[in-house]
Amino acid sequence: MIINDELKTLRLLIAESPVGPDLLRKISEEVERIKRVWLSRLGDQAKDHIIKRYTSYQQRLLLELSDGLYRTVDTANLQEHEYELAVLDVLLALGHFQIHHFSRYMDEQGKIPDAMTAKIRAKLSDDADRMSAALQQVELEPGLKTLLLDFLGTLISSTLSKKMIYGHVEYLYQWFEMMEVTIGFNDDRDLTYSIIEALFQLNFNYGVFCYWYEQRIVQNTVQADKAGRHAALQQQSLIIHSLPVRRDMRYDPSLASVDELIGNWLEQFKRTDTISKNDDEPDRYIKTELKLTVAQLALLLRLLYEEDVFAVKNIASLLKFFTRHFRSKYQERISYGSMNKLYYATDQFTAAAIKDLLQRMIDRLNKMFFPN
Predict the structure, then answer these.
(1) Largest Cα–Cα distance in the chain?
(2) Would you say 217 and 233 are in contact if contact means Cβ atoms under 8 Å apart?
(3) How far apart (Å, rounded) are the C-alpha atoms in residues 211 and 216?
(4) What residues contact residue 14 under an 8 Å CB cut-off, 6+ apart?
(5) What is the pLDDT along the chain (372 residues), one digit of tens a residue?
(6) pTM (2 decimals)?
(7) Residue 9, exposed/middle/buried by CB under 10 A (0-12, 13-18, 19+)?
(8) By the 8 A CB rule, do 151 and 329 touch?
């Protein structure tokens, strides 16, 4: 298969000026031709890696064309750009067509056109709000409910970065879809196992979820004798490896699948046969509530530490201090293990939330001391 620039003619048409009804009609006709050419490639019986390379190339060309046109549109004077906006809509519709027919061949790390990010941001925020409200009514193990609310709170509070990655957004769409189906019951049943099963199937290799599941295993086996504990851990291993996990998707592409992460931890745990005790130190400290999630607090602490704000060069003691004296947006008690894990592993949404917080602080500082 020859990797042609199928958008060359379309790019030349869009470059013509001024845009009017006749040119818009020509552009629409050219887009229909491109669709036919794209679909014909699926019937070429080429190998999957060739089609993927072809699709990724067209995806990049369409992104460059869409972003280039979007940058020329003055959003403050939309009426003056009626035809440009119509052309942009045609390009975005072509992008949706490509996703619909070539989803398995798309570049997962490809950027989403800037013109689409506002709608995506609003949809994710609405989905997170709706899911958070639904979870409040669901019977669920408290730790699992807390981490899910924490995760959703990060989505709600974050001003997502302008650069949005196709694969991550598609993953979140499927995440919300499956979770809504999973909790869509009107009775009072405990949905803990159902949600765990759904999260495994979604390959939700989110660090906080893996840590919670590992600690759940510890807590469920800590009271057993050595023989009983070994049998329980073997049973847990069977459960982990029997749960269905989708291999074509995962929350964090840089990490192994959720069953591999937890399974590897469990094998190490069984070899050492040492039960990790939770931090049972009594809560004798008065905790100050923060309007941050645990993940956001951990990232903020990391930034301060790496900028040498603290004279103490011992991250363990600092993590212990913050877990003793502060509570998060959703959790009364922050575990040291959770903070330690999140300190070294974060995600784009947490980073975006902290970036937004720091930007507001800079704006406030400028207003107070450096007015224009």
Answers:
(1) 81
(2) yes
(3) 9
(4) 27, 65, 69, 87
(5) 568 899 999 999 988 767 788 888 999 999 999 999 998 887 777 788 888 899 999 999 999 999 988 888 755 555 666 788 888 899 999 999 998 888 888 888 889 898 888 888 888 889 999 999 999 888 999 889 988 998 888 776 654 555 788 888 999 999 999 999 999 866 678 899 999 999 999 999 988 899 899 888 888 887 777 788 888 888 989 999 899 999 989 998 888 899 999 998 888 787 765 444 444 444 556 788 888 888 899 999 999 988 889 887 778 778 888 888 888 877 778 888 788 888 877 788 888 889 999 999 998 898 888 887
(6) 0.66
(7) middle
(8) no
For 197, the token pair is: 């099963």
Sign for the pseudo-dihedral over CA of 85, 89, 90, 92: positive
CA distance 88 to 85: 5
As a whole number of angstroms, the distance between CA 126 and CA 348 comes to 18
Instruction: Count other Cβ atoms within 10 Å, centred on residue 185.
Output: 12
Please, are residues 36 and 30 in contact by the beta-carbon 8 Å criterion? no
What are φ and ψ of residue 273, in 5° steps?
A: 55, 35
Token pair 């199937």 is found at: 201
Distance of CA 143 to the CA centre of its chain: 20
